[in-house]
Design goal:
Order of helices and strands of chain A: EEEEEEEEEEE
Shape of chain A: globular
Radius of gyration of chain B: 13 Å
Strand content of chain A: over 45%
Radius of gyration of chain A: 13 Å
Order of helices and strands of chain B: EEEEEEEEEEE
Strand content of chain B: over 45%
Structural class of chain A: mainly beta
Low-confidence stretches of chain B: none
Helix content of chain B: under 10%
Number of strands of chain B: 11
Number of helices of chain A: 0
Oligomer: heterodimer
Largest interface: A-B, 25 and 22 residues
């Protein structure tokens, strides 16, 4: 079946603006993860959903970041009052069951000017 | 803080040679270990997973795990120019929420 999809592929915004990044996991995958990757670094964990609930949001850097998964499939990562330091590639992954191989989407490259 | 360490490289090998990539991790109760390949501008792609001590082979790739030494490695035999990429080591710690902790990656270049 189809892999993980993410939209948009690129997002350019101005400092202080609000952005939403969308992830559509592999059909049937109950676990969904968000990671952030800066240049020259490995991906860093942000948040993990099991079904509709956030099982672990310990990686969210501050309260400007929030994510939802209301129906247990598509997830949206929301960033308020964006800062230049938020510029990175935001990666989404899904797995089933949790702990099994995580399959990554193509990512959203966010640039905050 | 749970850490995963990799030599950042770059590692350069001639075509046909064996490439050896190494990774150490700090959390003794880590349970699951993964190697991902990432081409420039692309997302990580799983190469190998390994869960128990010893070797696991898949085609030209062999993953080796030594939990006592907290060490995991990836060997690529008969390296091809298409293997040129960044290789990311990732670990799931025991009792965790299944999040992956990644190393910074090792850049591998295979020269024709």
């Amino acid at each position: 079946g189809a892999g993980v999809s993410q939209t948009p592929s690129n997002k350019v915004t101005e400092k202080g603006k609000y952005v939403e990044l969308r992830c559509d996991p592999i059909s049937g995958h109950t676990a969904l993860y968000w990671y952030r990757q800066s240049l020259g670094q490995g991906p860093e964990f942000l948040i993990y959903f099991q079904g509709t609930g956030a099982a672990d949001d310990s990686g969210l850097p501050n309260d400007r970041f929030f994510a939802v998964r209301p129906e247990g499939s598509v997830s949206t990562l929301k960033i308020q009052r964006t800062e230049r330091g938020d510029s990175a590639v935001y990666l989404c992954a899904s797995s089933n069951p949790p702990g099994d191989t995580q399959y990554f989407g193509p990512g959203t490259r966010l640039t905050v000017l | 803080q749970k850490e995963v360490e990799q030599n950042s490289g770059p590692l350069s090998v001639p075509e046909g040679a064996i490439a050896s990539l190494n990774c150490t991790y700090s959390d003794r109760v880590s349970q699951s270990f993964f190697w991902y390949r990432q081409y420039s501008g692309k997302s990580p792609e799983l190469i190998m997973s390994i869960y128990s001590n010893g070797d696991k082979e898949d085609g030209r790739f062999t993953a080796q795990l030594n939990k006592a030494s907290q060490y995991v490695s990836l060997l690529i035999r008969d390296s091809q120019p298409s293997d040129s990429a960044t290789y990311l080591c990732a670990v799931i710690s025991g009792g965790s929420n299944y999040k992956l902790t990644f190393g910074k990656g090792t850049l591998l270049t295979v020269n024709p």
